[in-house]
């Protein structure tokens, strides 16, 4: 067990924001802390980062207490909602700043890993929202953290960029053997990105588990399906004609960019398309073929 | 302990106010002039600064950066140097030795600070909040949103402009040609003599006028808020 | 409505700016070379630079530290107390300091001894200007995104590095503004140094006003010339410092997240 949070309490203005929170994050996993606004998840994250102090409780890393250790000595970095790249530095200098031995080669390497090669000398304002978040992620990684905190990092991104960043984070965290804690209000996002999910409600842990397990026991997390060990959201699609023979479906809403069209089945009055190889776009019509009780694209 | 030490250092100069009994106040021309200057200039500063800052922040115009620089430029001109120059200029228009001349020059000295204060305050409050107010009809907009939002700014502008006005000896002496006595000019002459109680009387006035104005505006604004909330319910 | 205000404000602003042109007219005929060689003016310039720079530097440092203590360390009580000197006009604070240091209180005989370091003048200015700088910097700290500081902390930077990347770049502009406002104000003023300063060397503003008004304005062109030269020197300083920092400030303004 790497990060262990025990009985953390925090009171703000006569209100218990955190009323005894316990959870743990294992080394190498992405753990998501999910909750609505005001559930205390960001406060929890700030306490772990050392930016806020708890009224009671302990935070330990490999059984050594982090309380009292200043934020800049915890080896915990953070990715926030907005990139927050220092505007007086270039993109590369921002990464360089966090690199322990100030090695330019290392900084360039980190930029390459987040697909920003050749942007070392770019000004911060020249980056798009997604590029900014990626640069910020490179900077957070460059500090060689033992834990990386992700504070709703996908909130301000459009679906395409959101999906790309989610993929990138999953890929790099796995490659580097990092441990990450994601804070989000978006349950689906938590299910898709994290290895384990903890649900916070009114400052306390309500439930915790793997996405697959939670999907089965918590209907509020939405509909998911596991194929080859990967969890996919069941994408809601309006079918313009009843699927007898050759149905035509109009894609009205995608819950996740790039989900593949595949089998189809009827679920609680709505049509649900399961993944297959063709990606589809909102607003377009797709011809489906019916074969042995399932529909293929 | 550190806090107490800090407060002692900060408040020590005020001890002088209690070093002896100030002479009783006589309401003369100098006091009258001072009060008129303070009220007229505080009012003008608030009105001009708020409107100008509004324009600088929220109006699309290609002149904006130029006007902004131009309006803040006098802050970097030494006050005494511009006083000398304005003296030379106003002599030609026969305005030296008149109330109008003195008021105009005092306004010129205080306005850049006031615009600066209003600009910073409005910037911090932010455009989105002011834009919300645009959905209300003009009278209600001022009554329910702008006045409450800008209360502190109005108080600060009034305070700063009053304090600057009350601090001007050379300006009033030169532009007023000695014909427009104020508490400040009188104070300066009293300092030259050795009458501590008379000097203290003037010093008390110089400290109390801004304090009373600041407190008075605060009180009026509180009443405004009370009435406004009463009307809302 | 606001356009009317801008027009009036611009006209009023025109006055101190054109005043500089009038100074130019009046200064014509002054022998600038003899002015430069005049021992009295030179001594005055030296002492003015000393008083101005020391007062300005101390005010900027203390005012910024106080604003930081309120915003970063949550010492909100400072805001209340630092307002107090704001209520006192410069001339009145000069008199209060005069009373304090003129021997009226035990141990403070600094003015009586005609001390050469202008300490009381500097103290008066620092006492008056710290709250001004505090107000300016408090506004700047209010606009500063706290996320930058949190980010610097979590990037494992030392406290000094945290300040230098997440605070200092955003303070350059307001500090530069405050610096020049204070320098313009302190370097060529009359009231405070006239009351508290020593008789020789006098500060530039005192000397200029004295030369202007003694002897029925006989030396007036000299005073006007000094006022003009000083205004131009400051103006050049303002332009130079803003030009030198322009690139950096623009970069920050464009890349900052509020």
Q: How would you describe this structure to a colleague?
A:
- The complex is a heterotrimer of chains A (297), B (233) and C (258).
- With 297 residues, chain A is an alpha+beta fold.
- Chain A has two domains: 3-216, 3-Layer(aba) Sandwich (Rossmann fold), CATH 3.40.50.300; 224-290, OB fold (Dihydrolipoamide Acetyltransferase, E2P), CATH 2.40.50.
- Chain A is built from seven helices and 21 strands.
- Chain A has a six-stranded mixed sheet with strand order 6-7-8-3-9-10, sandwiched between helices. A five-stranded antiparallel sheet of chain A has the order 16-17-13-14-19, with no helix packed on it.
- In chain A, a hairpin with a 2-residue loop joins strand 9 (196-201) and strand 10.
- In chain A, helix 2 (91-98) crosses helix 3 (104-113), helix 2 (91-98) runs parallel beside helix 4 (129-142) and helix 4 (129-142) packs parallel to helix 5.
- Chain A is globular.
- Chain A starts with a strand and ends with a strand.
- The model of chain A is unreliable at 237-247, 252-272 and 289-297 (pLDDT under 50).
- Chain B has 233 residues and is mainly alpha-helical.
- Chain B has one domain (29-232): MetI-like fold, CATH 1.10.3720.10.
- In chain B, helix 2 packs parallel to helix 5 (99-125) and helix 9 (183-192) runs antiparallel to helix 10 (196-232).
- Helix content of chain C is 76%, strand content 0%.
- In chain C, helix 1 (2-27) packs across helix 12 (220-255).
- Chain C is globular and about 65 Å long.
- The two termini of chain C are 29 Å apart.
- At the B-C interface, helix 1, helix 2, helix 3, helix 4 and helix 5 of B face helix 1, helix 4, helix 5, helix 6 and helix 9 of C.
